[in-house]
Amino acid sequence: AMKELERIAQQEGQYDEFMTILREIRRYPHGRQDTEIDRWWTRRELDTKDRPAAITRREVIFRKAPNDASNILSLARLYEQEKDVPRAQAKYEYLYKTTENPMQYAQTLSLFYYRTGMHNKAHDLFKSLLQKANSDAAKADAYLVYGQFLSLSDPGAAQVMYDNARKLMPKNVKVLGSYSNFLEFQARKASGRGEGPKARQLWAASVALLQEAIRGSEQVEGLRKVLYRRMMDAGMLDKAKQGYETLLRENPKNVEARYGLSMVYYSMGDMDAAVAQCDAAVKTDPNYGRIYLLRGSICRARSDMDGAVKEVAKAVTIQPLNLVFRLELAKLYIEM
Fold first, then answer.
1. pTM
2. Does residue 143 have a pLDDT over 60?
């Protein structure tokens, strides 16, 4: 009934009046665990007018279920959005101290400290984690999380943490993958600063770590997709091309590999080959939206703006909630 009333209110242009009524209705009973009410409140928490009531409701849930990690995390974020730092800090720290897996929320707590200028507390947190670690695996995890935190402000110190994790677990796929991701991020930053040689060095190191991770992983296919994409981003187009071609020989219907190969040809400037791969991908999966986005880019490169709009519009039709697709379509309309 409430959903139907909401629909009518939108049609009649009386949505503000409807929301006033609905807020009062939804406030009772506080703390009731109901899927529909929970879903409604999750949406309304974005509205500053509803935030105090949302906090009240989540506090009631907290008193009833003090170990509900999802609720505690949402409550901490609401307090932070309201700029109530002491209460937000209390909830973040409570979650970290009471969870069975502190590492899971160490990054969340450290980022809160970073956002609110409590940098020393963040460093103390990671030092405590390292002291409490009772195995090489636990220490490596602590170094990785510390490295992720330091990468925001001190890449040199962050790299030391990743090196420490690698020394402890030299063949661990998680360690190698995380280190590779860090180097990729630094490569992009170096490239953005115009430091071409340094960026290429970082890209190469990132790719090498991924290759090492693949040799020690059972989930090879997923890592290979990441590797070939990273090779392409790093400008290693020939190697990326060979990789995607290998995946397609293994499975000609692998639409992600077909899309990757299309991207490689597009990056090489071979538009005809890129179009051929796009067409093959569409035959395999006509609902793979990114293919139409790429076909739109090819049309644009050929100065066919009408064709570009048509292709990107197809992507939006397939995935209407994809903001990247919609923004690309908007850019094309602006260019026209």
1. 0.72
2. yes
